Amino acid sequence: MAELATRRSALDGHVPADHIGEPGAVGVNLAVTREVQLWQVAAWPDTVDAVAKAVGSVTGAQAPGPRLAISGPNAVALRVEPLKWWILNAEPPTVASEQGAVVDLSHARTQVTLSGPAAADCLMRHLPLDLREESFPVGSVASTAFHHVGVTLWRNDAGIAVFLPRGFALSLWQLLLETAAQFGARAQID
Amino acid sequence: MIRIHCPFCGERDHSEFAYGGDGSVVYPALDASAEAWHDAVFLRENIRGLQVETWQHVNGCRQWLRVERSTVTHEITSVQACHPGVATVLESEQ
Amino acid sequence: MSATRLSQGGRIDRSCELAFQWDGKGLSGYDGDTLASALLANNEWVVARSFKYHRPRGVMSAGVEEGGALVTLGSGAHRDANVRATTQPLFSGLEAFGQNAWPNVRTDLGEVNSLFGRFFAAGFYYKTFMGVPPLEWGRGTWLWMQYEKVIRRAAGMGRASREPDPDHYEHANAFCDVLVVGGGPAGLAAAQVAAEAGLDVMLVEQDSKLGGDTLNHPAAADADRLAAISALETLGCRVLTHTTAFGLYDGGVAGLLERVTDHQSIPSVHQPRQRFWTVRAKHTVLASGALERGMAFGNNDRPGVMTVNAARAYMQRYGVRVGDKLVLSTNNDSVYAAASEFAKSGAEVCVLDARARVEPAVTEFAEASGVRVEFNTAPYTAHGRSPVSGLTTARADRDGWALGDRMECDALLVSGGWSPVVNLLSHRQVKSVWDASLACFLPADTDEPLSLAGSAAGVWNTEDCVRSGEAAGARAAQALGRSAPTVSAPAPGGWATPIKAVYEVRVPGKSEKCFVDPQHDVSTEDVRLAHREGYVSVEHMKRYTTLGMATDQGKVGNIIGLALMAEALGREIPEVGTTTFRPPYTPVALGALRGRHVGAHFRPLRVTPLHQWNLDHGATMTMAGLWHRPWYFARAGEGISEAYVREATTVRESVGLVDVTSLGKIAIQGPDATELLNRVYTNPFAKLAIGKARYGIMLRDDGLVMDDGTTWRLGEHDYFMTTTTAHAAKVMVFLEELLQTRWTDLKVHLTSVSEQWAGVAVAGPCSREVLEEALADPSVVSNEALPFMGVVETRFKGDIPVRIARISFSGERAFEAYVPSDYAPSMMDLLWPAAEARGGCLYGLEALGALRIEKGHVTGAELDGRVTIDDAGLGKMASKNKHFIGSALAKRPELEREGRAQLVGIFPVDKSKRFNAGSLLTDGTVGDGHGEGWITGVTHSPALGHWIGLGFIKGGASAWHGKRAVATDPVRAEDVDVEIVSPHMYDPNGERMHG
């Protein structure tokens, strides 16, 4: 096999092409990101500033504080835990083990972005999380439980991105589609 | 429902957390005596009132938290990260 | 006698006629009707039969407190029992049935029970059927258990469908600044003031319409209501109608039930039937209103007896006047407006006021409309069956009552006072306070962020309720740091003439059946009987009589019951206390509590990246925890037994591939990673070389085994730990606890990478060749480059990164290969043709189990939290040269005792026999007890050609050499004589996997 192997998303083959649920307007758009690139960069308590700098050097912006994401010209970083950032769509910085640790999670999460007027309502059918615009504006990051499964959310200009643990992604995706049907929905993968 | 103010994530439903145990226990060193380990593992107070307990924000930031909670009213009077280094980081960033 | 649908008035749409079915009869009503108003408009008075006595019952109220008109809605799987006709909106095609009656509610043979009414007093069945001499002599319940089945059938209410619920439900979460419960004048005002202060407000109303009691006022006075509603709309307040706040919980959390489609004729399939909301509010305003009570008098449960305000609602809201000749009985001022309205509509109206005098301003208005008022008068008993045709009155006589006159009426409307709905406050453990001057419980003060407004706070007049709502809204706003005009809350009350407390109208020397709790057929005599029999606590009285324990939870009957109990005890009501209201305020369907978590979504389902690939290649799946895993891959003509035996045989003879993705995987990184591992594993990890893996055991603090697995050293400060599927989450959490709470000086990061890596085990003599064919550089897996327990990070063809360890769970030469999950199907597309070409197979959990049982490898079935490392036969893995988690308490005498149950292998003596997992092991003489041991797993061993098992038995294999042992399974199978052997039943020296 000379050609490169291709990645297969957890939701490949499970994204309906047709309008979902209530006919008429589309209340929720669900977009699956086919190939996620996601690196986790972690600091020690006494190296947070140094690692933040390293994260910033990748994104081209300041490293975000708790519950925030900051997009730079090159990439975006999410602060997901007190000592941990996620970097999306870029290679990670080099971090020596005295400074921290880097680990690849590109295949560990399935990214679904919900947009449309009912996106937050649809998610709040399941998440015990305050997604009102004023409480969770663009640039917010939060982790919570979705049917007992830990998920991470990030609101960006395109909508609310939800990172689902890959093994649960199909089951949670089906729940989301069933829930979105009441609002009228469309799904896509790209 | 108990709502817990996580020092990293903010106030959240208790369903995101997992109860840990008695937060006042100081576990002995690995080479301590069996008696010391026995006391740490098995002996618990049954407190009516304010109790120190650990919770993990398992479906959140995964931090182990030291929570002061009234066993009478469920009222929570303080929450902080168990790890002192993490607690310092969170204080400096809030 | 007739109820009349008036030609005009009300809030119904007479242009929209709705056909519906009542007990098989086609009737019609209008859009805006409830089922109750439509039944009344059709003169259907008997709509139910009572719980115990099968007495005819009709509509008693116009709301959630209904104790009479409980019906069954729908049929088949959609059947819904005990629906209150008074709150069920009418829709086209609605199908309702009377319940607890045969053949129907109008002619119910069960009514024979009421002839023996005195036998059915509280406690009758227990006294009669428990401990009957000479059978049980005062003790025992055997006879009761037999009779109970019959009794339960005769007594009761509607029957639930036995079929699965075909509707779907969902949960929803919401957050707001202020939650306003109740959309009456007070609630609307509170919401408006709070929203105007810039707060995010949610208002919930159980009714289909906003307005509360003003909906029962003449429609001409609607301007205020409509203005308040449109103000909320403009302010962006979230309003949910058809939604009940059924419970209040800690932390400002409220539970709501939204009936999304229960009022719709043909609901959209995309909408849930009901939605269960969890709302977190910073402040809650309870504007939940008040309920009108009746009084206890003879036959006060007859159809045609209802509250005054209910009759007003039927006329003003639904355009149905319940009679032409109305008698209103009251002890307070609240009925006069309604009396006047009835009179103006052409009815003959007489008010019996129990009080000696009333402020003339109250009565003048009504009398001017033609209402006749008699003071010092109350109903003694109602006459007529269904509905009432008249009553005998009672005249006030010193402190009590004397028999009065007989008069005719075609509906008897009663007001015994009003009870503020303090139920939700009671959920917060706030006891309410008895106010003797208003004859009701009023909400007590509370420190919680809760305000009460309107008639829920005992404020009776509409204008005062609005002001009370404004005050509550302003208080909420100020409490949340917003500026709002301070409004002084009106004091409770508002009637010109004080109420006279009348709970029961009893004439000395006479006795009538007077009901306190119509839904459970609890009478005034039952309460007194409870007292005579020694029940002095109101909580005990409640349980003995079942007063207030029906679906209405005593909304109207409780206070009368309390008053009677107080009277019997010679005490005041506050001394008797009140029972605690608990959620839910009105019944909640179990389906709503489950939400979407039913069927396939009962638990979150976890699948591996090879799920589809496995299915495409013939896998039959099984559940392992939350995981869906291949169980076996049957070929044509095979069942599970043939398939797994073939698969296990193939692994031993050539090669097999199995999806092992479900194993827990943790990245352990940092300068102190080695130290962490050395502290948590029982065996030494300090000197594990980079590029090597090691099998390890972890104990819990208490010295018992927690988990086992292999850990691979990828770099100086970089490890890859695998755990069992079952304990993956537990191990992760425990390691996090150690690092965050105990060993906070260690610099180690843990990350679950279970989802990042998809794993396959390649096992069997040909495993290396299969791997070589798939790898870009085959030399990395040669015996020299990758010896047993070696680790290599390399690439498959197609540039797929892979980490491989030479590990064996099957006892054969074997490898575990992990690739990033999205590449898993591509990996299998490389490995499977290579395996197939060598006569290999895909195998599942069943063959995996067979192979590991032959080898005596333990899994979760053996490591059940009760075994020590020695019990599991792994004692040599416990280092004597270091301390580790559990090492101190593992030395407890009980855990080191000789003769503990040890891991053993089990063979049948007669090799043709089989035995079951879960059997007890005995020495053949024990008849009961726990036996000598137990069996954790069995399989038909392809290698040995007979059934074998793994289990634990006291003393281990050496203690049973030459002794009789029996696998006993009294439930499923006969006893089987077995031979206890070493757990290493196949290739004990491991020669096959080292080759």
Please characterize this protein's 3D structure.
The complex is a heterotrimer of chains A (190), B (94) and C (995). With 190 residues, chain A is α+β, with helices and mostly antiparallel strands. Chain A contains three helices and eleven strands. Chain A has a six-stranded mixed beta sheet. In chain A, strands 3-4-5-2-6 form a five-stranded antiparallel beta sheet, with helices on one face. In chain B, the strands form two sheets. A four-stranded antiparallel beta sheet of chain B has the order 3-4-5-6. Chain B has a two-stranded antiparallel sheet with strand order 1-2. Chain B is globular and about 40 Å long. Chain B has a single domain (3-25, 44-93), classed as Folate-binding fold (2-Layer Sandwich), CATH 3.30.2270. Chain C has 995 residues and is α+β, with helices and mostly antiparallel strands. Among the domains of chain C are: 4-115, Roll (Ubiquitin-like (UB roll)); 167-291 and 418-495 and 579-600, FAD/NAD(P)-binding domain; 611-662 and 756-850, 2-Layer Sandwich (Gyrase A, domain 2); 664-752, Alpha-Beta Plaits (2-Layer Sandwich), CATH 3.30.70.1400; 898-994, Beta Barrel (Elongation Factor Tu (Ef-tu), domain 3), CATH 2.40.30.110. Helices cover 23% and strands 27% of the residues of chain C. Chain C is built from 25 helices and 49 strands. In chain C, strands 9, 10, 11, 12, 13, 14 and 28 form a seven-stranded mixed beta sheet that branches. A six-stranded mixed beta sheet of chain C has the order 40-41-42-39-33-43. In chain C, helix 8 packs parallel to helix 9, helix 12 (524-532) runs parallel beside helix 14 and helix 21 (767-774) crosses helix 22. Chain C is elongated, with a radius of gyration of 38 Å. The interface between B and C is medium-sized, with 33 and 26 residues.
